[in-house]
Amino acid sequence: MTAARDWRLPMVEIFQTVEGEGTKAGYPTTFVRVFNCNLRCTWCDTTYSYAPHQPAFYATIGDIAEQVEQYGNRYVCLTGGEPLMHGDKSLALVERLAHIPCVTDLHIETNGAVPIDPFVRLRETDEEAARKVRFVMDWKLPGSGEAERMISGNLALLEAQDELKFVIADEGDFTAACAVLDGHQIAAQPLFSPVWETMPPARLVELLLASGRKEVKLNLQIHKVIWHPEARGV
Questions:
Q1: Interatomic CA distance for residues 139 and 103, integer angstroms
Q2: Quick check: is 6 in a domain?
Q3: Tens digit of pLDDT for each residue in 91-126?
Q4: Residues in the chain where the model's pLDDT stays below 50
Q5: What pLDDT, in 10s, does the model give residues 186-203?
Q6: Is residue 31 part of a domain?
Q7: Rounded alpha-carbon distances, angstroms, from residue 141 to 18, 101, 178
Q8: What is the number of domains present in the chain?
Q9: What confidence score (pLDDT) does residue 107 get?
Q10: Backbone Cα Rg of the chain
Q11: Cα-based distances in Å from 72 to 21, 75, 135, 219, 224
Q12: For position 28, which CATH number holds?
């Protein structure tokens, strides 16, 4: 752990706000945004978090954990970019954040195109990670342009405490999301989130109710209601 503490990661920002979406929406949360992503989704709202942009700064795992401890929030969101694409450094960061005493929930926003096996094993072997770590997997649909990059084996690794988010750009995406749910045994909570520019939330609600799917939760990004949709650090 001592050596891993000194590993450096490219970073975008570390800040506190209220969680804007998912099952923990509204809770005061510390966001740890790691730089870079292996996908280029058409509707991405954090394009500043990957190349050709540059990291805002570099930080050691120890420094990141120290900032998280200073905020003192129970909830921490590890996000990007794609926060799990840095291999052993990502794993060490997850482990360190999970061992911060004030943290009770560490939810990891991951894109479905990175194998989560090592992080699942950490949750299986580390008592703190088992209690705190959750995955929020953003499963890409055709409208994203990245649907072919999804790793189907990740779906079976999700558990009841996890979330499976589908960003719905159009009615074709809605149909594709339903097909994923019908084609796999999924323990995670499904979330359907509208692309603001192309899928009016009221229309997504109509589709959801007409489908008869009682297990799906509508997922609205409340931070885009509270602040300007392009505001950062909120």
A1: 26
A2: yes
A3: 999 999 999 999 999 999 999 999 999 999 999 999
A4: 1
A5: 999 999 999 988 999 999
A6: yes
A7: 27, 37, 11
A8: 1
A9: 98
A10: 17
A11: 20, 9, 21, 26, 24
A12: 3.20.20.70
